[in-house]
Amino acid sequence: MRHGIPLADLVRESLEGVGSRPSRLIITLVGTVLGIAALVATIGFAQTASGQIAQQFDALAATRVTVEPGKTYAGGTNTRATAVLPWDSVDRVSRLAGVEHAALIATTKAAHRVDAVRVQDPSAPPLAPTPLIGASPELLDVVEGTIGAGRFFDAGHERRGDRVAVLGKEAAQRLGINRVSGQPAIFVDDRAYSVIGILDSVGARGNLQDSVIVPLQTARNELGFSTPESLDIRIALGAGSVVARQAPIALNPNSTDAYRVGAPPNSNELRDQVESDINVLFLAIGIVALIGGGIGIANVTLLSVTERRGEIGLRRALGATTRDVARQFMLESMTTGVLGGLIGVVVGLFALIGVCLMQQWTPVLAPWTAPVGVAMGALVGLAAGGYPAVKAARIEPVDALRES
Predict the structure, then answer these.
(1) Do 18 and 335 touch, CB atoms closer than 8 A?
(2) Which of 76, 206, 230, 258 has a CA-to-CA distance to 358 between 20 and 30 Å?
């Protein structure tokens, strides 16, 4: 009666089988290492990227409220007309709790020619018109912008309706103006405007970089701007719902539904959604890479079974059962998976730390990731060795010894 091979002997033989072919072991480990490294790194990248996105969301989107004209019933009739933002909207909302800065923005559909020189070359190809924007002096604070050269216009320019302009970075390049020290001027419909500043960056409203910005009062008096387009409000973090509810009342208490208010959603819900989406995406990538590593282990283990038919037949003839043979090959493939998991965890951690150092991010990684990575390597190895182990167990001793 056969009693089988003790477990300790099976483990020893499995380790000898794994280490007997070092070149093949290295090739096998590459797939597992890449799979586990991809899994560990992508989990870390997902959590780190979620933190960076959440930080950007808190800094920009969660601190802005926009109010735009909507549709309202005119004169108590059933006719709906476009509401109008008051020209003193900034003063009306500045007294609300949670409001830090507010800026009124106006544009026009009328075509205005903007040039850096008064004399035009009739043979020159026509250029796309440069957008003109009228804004209140608080615009730079609201969009969290910075000035690359010069300054932004102030309340004095606004009150007097001065012919001054601030250029977006792209607009300045197109007009050929790169500094303001020589008091350059641009011409809007043949009227000179002194360029007092050039934008460097903006945190919101990226269209400002391609525009010429003039004081709101100047836009009304000189350029015929008739109605404001938007009221942008920079708020304290967490004051979005309060400001969104009170701003329409401050602007028009008789018709609070006349405006479209864009307020930040609940930051916790949005952050959770972003983190969930990114985790799913990167996990899917890691799992695909892990499947590739498992297929590599299965192929090499299956090849090992074919090459070791004589050894398997000899073991069977000496008393090893079919279960002993299957367990041996399962242990070999699982050992390969564990080794790949250990190395993969280390490679993934170094990859995460390296990227975070280059990008100056704070690495974020759950403490369970490393042991789960090793366990995943073991499971992949165990699953990959299933079919080769069954095939090895079905080899008959007589046939194997005859072929050898």
Answers:
(1) yes
(2) 206
> Are 308 and 341 contacting, i.e. CB atoms less than 8 angstroms apart?
no
| Residue 134 backbone phi and psi in degrees, to 5 | -100, 135
Q: Are 7 and 324 in contact (CB under 8 A)?
A: no
Distance (Å, whole) CA 30 – CA 16: 20
Average pLDDT of adjacent 10-residue blocks, the chain of 404 residues? 62 62 58 63 62 54 83 58 85 91 89 75 62 93 92 94 94 90 88 94 89 94 90 86 89 86 70 67 69 71 74 77 83 83 83 81 80 84 81 74 62
Instruction: Return the structure tokens found at 398.
Output: 């007589």
Q: What is the 3-state secondary structure (H, E, C) of the chain?
A: CCCCCCHHHHHHHHHHHHHCCHHHHHHHHHHHHHHHHHHHHHHHHHHHHHHHHHHHHHHCHHHEEEEEECEEECCCCCCEEECCCCCCHHHHHHCCCCEEEEEEEECCCCCCCEECCCCCCCCCCCCCCCCEEEECCCHHHHCCCEEEEECCCCHHHHHHCCCEEEECHHHHHHHCCCCCCCCCEEEECCEEEEEEEEEEECCCCHHHHHCEEEEHHHHHHHHCCCCCCEEEEEECCCCHHHHHHHHHHHHCCCCCCCEEEECCCCHHHHHHHHHHHHHHHHHHHHHHHHHHHHHHHHHHHHHHHHHCHHHHHHHHHCCCCHHHHHHHHHHHHHHHHHHHHHHHHHHHHHHHHHHHHHHCCCCCCCCCHHHHHHHHHHHHHHHHCHHHHHHHHCCCHHHHHHHC
Chain centre distance of CA 147: 27
* Residue found by looking up tokens 């042991």 in the block: 371
Lookup result for tokens 């009062």: 217
**Contact residues for 78 (Cβ-Cβ < 8 A; gap 6+):** none
Task: Name the token pair of 260.
Answer: 């479209």
Q: What is the pLDDT of residue 336?
A: 80
Tell me the β-bridge partners of 202.
none
Phi and psi at 71, nearest 5°, equal -100, 140
What six digits make up the tokens of 327? 């367990």
Contact 329, 301 (CB under 8 A): yes
Closest among 142, 89, 134 to 248, alpha carbons compared? 89
- At residue 228, φ and ψ (nearest 5 deg) are -65, 150
